[in-house]
Amino acid sequence: MTPSLQARLGYASLTGPRPRNEDFCGAVTPDGAELEAKGILAVVADGVGGHANGREAAEYTVRGLLSDYYATPDTWAVNKSLDTVLGALNRWLLSLAGRTRESAGMATTLSAVVLRGRRFYLAHVGDSRIYRLRGGHLELLTTDHVWEHPELNNVLSRAVGLDAHLSVDHADGELEAGDLFALMSDGVWGQLGDRRIGDILRAGHDPQEAAARLAASAEDAGSQDNCTALVLQVDSLPPDRLRDTISRLRQLPLPPRLQPGQQLDGLSVDAVLHESIATLLYRVRDAQGRLRVLKTLRPEHDDAEAAAALAHEEWLARRVNDAWFPQVIPHPPRSHLYYLMSWHEGATLKARLDSGHRFGSGETVELGERILKGLAGLHRLSIVHRDIKPDNLHLDQEGRLRILDLGVAASDGGLDGQTFEEINNPGTPSYMAPELFNARTHTANEQTDLYAVGVTLYQLLTRKYPYGEIEPFQTPRFGDPVPPTRYRPDIPDWLEAVLLKAVAREPRDRFETAEEFLLALERGARRPLSVPRRSPLMKRDPQLGLKLLAASSLVLNVFLLFLLMAR
Fold it and tell me: Among 437, 425, 281, 433, which residue's Cα sits nearest to residue 348?
């Protein structure tokens, strides 16, 4: 049986000498798919003392976080989910505080732990604390948000409900079986101190007993505040998940710019293959002398967003375990951020075009069938390539085709919150479907990939683009595509019909799936498609149509005027 994330928890909350307990704590321990997607969440909050409704602020915030965190999309990063929910709760507390004089100033500290997969995530505001006991060593994982004041203790500089802008501290790290997390209000840690807290946690009690001893010990020691403690112990961990592995890798530093002959993690650089605005590709040899491709970022492109994008690309590439794509090569341990792919001798279709190769109809149809088979597999994984073009289509020396570069690919099950809707429309303009030039209303999808395949096949045959070449930042106007037979009269009528359908201006006139496009190529002349009729001028170019209509009207009026004068 495959092990899973299992943890035990216990909690205790004592009022102490205060007239009212303004602390609140809670936890959710789901199972099944929810445990895998969202993890275990434990929270401690301490309502701001001396203000009305401190308890209400703490309880409302904890209950709101415990319920709303699990309602956020599974594709969101943990930190994004926590920030989104806490931001909404902060705004709500501020609105409540402004309604009555009694509610003015209601706020709360908050410390939360999420255990998901083999990693933990922290969110912290205020002066409640989170400790971790690992291997007998006690470590404080949070920093108190308090102002230094000569006469007052623990004057909060941050709290939920204190300011319109909520700033939350986040941290994350790898879990180990046996880890013990202790969340507690200042009534506990302020009275006991780290040494006593460590002694209680090291005693080997179960989590409930440990939490009870922390709270009771603080009260017995003379704490003048509410005493709340929540203890979470990790008993077992699931196998290493890809998402968690990639999340760990993107914390690695970028390698320096490498030159042939240099070494990195036992890999010897053979050549620099390609350099783009953001990425570097090297051909390297492993310890056994096998050639690989190493992909990383340029050293000057060292930012969190770029690192996350490269990690996401590797994550997608690992999911695509298919002969139509280069394969990711495991290479642990990695000291820097990069990943390895299989190396294949050969050339891209763009390189073949540039070398003067003339693609015939039969060869183009065969290539189209291979591209569509690979793309169909990609789409079944809910991945959109978004940059199909001859540059990203490779033929090896045995004639096998591979689809390259998932650098701008998107998936609706993406890593840490990336979805079709949340990403812009990158790609190469001449291969982008007309609707993508209005990114506010249209985003890339499987059908826009098929449009790019159509443009690619058109270009292989004609060395032209169906709507002409489109430059970056240009806002093109699309009429009807130029029939490819204008450039290549030897193209069969049935193939022309397929290409024109693939690159039709309107999405409703194109192929809906890769399988439909593939079937049209396979059937060929046996069951040809009808050649689309040319669109009326008013539909192709309304402005030009109106101008011609106005000109015709003017000519007609002049003619009529001439007839009247002739009489």
Answer: 281
Distance CA 384, CA 513 (A): 12
The H or E element spanning position 214 is helix 207-220
User: pLDDT category, 308, cuts 50, 70, 90?
Assistant: confident
**CATH superfamily entry for domain 6-239:** PPM-type phosphatase domain (3.60.40.10)
The domain segmentation of the chain, as residue ranges, is 6-239, 245-342, 347-535
Instruction: Report the Cα 109 to chain-centroid distance in Å.
Output: 30
Domains 6-239 and 347-535 share a fold: no
Helix and strand totals (H; E) in the chain: 14, 23
Find the distance separating the first CA and the last CA of the chain, reported in whole Å: 103
Query: CATH number of the domain at 347-535, out of 3.90.550.10, 3.40.50.2000, 1.10.3720.10, 1.10.510.10?
Result: 1.10.510.10
CB 307 within 8 A of CB 265: no
Mean pLDDT in residue range 169-173:
91
* 264-268, 423-427, 429-433: least confidently modelled range: 423-427
Q: What average pLDDT does range 411-436 have in this prediction?
A: 66
Residue 203 contacts residue 210 (beta carbons within 8 Å):
yes
Q: What string of DSSP letters covers 4-66?
A: --EEEEEEEEE-TTSSS--EEEEEE---HHHHHHH-EEEEEEEBPTTSTTHHHHHHHHHHHHH
Separation CA 440–CA 483 (nearest Å): 30
CA 519 to chain centre: 33
Residue tagged 């709500």 (tokens):
92
In this prediction, residue 100 carries a pLDDT of 72
Residue 418: its pLDDT value, please?
A: 45
Find the largest Cα–Cα distance for the chain: 119
Question: Does residue 536 register a pLDDT over 60?
Answer: no
Q: Mind listing the pLDDT tens digit for each residue in 62-96?
A: 999 999 999 998 868 899 899 999 999 999 999 88
pTM score of the predicted model: 0.60
Measured between alpha carbons, how far is 359 from 339 in angstroms, rounded to an integer?
Answer: 34
Query: What's the average model confidence in pLDDT over 377-384?
Result: 90
Domain 245-342 in CATH 3.10.20.30:
no
- What is residue 304's predicted lDDT score, i.e. its pLDDT? 76
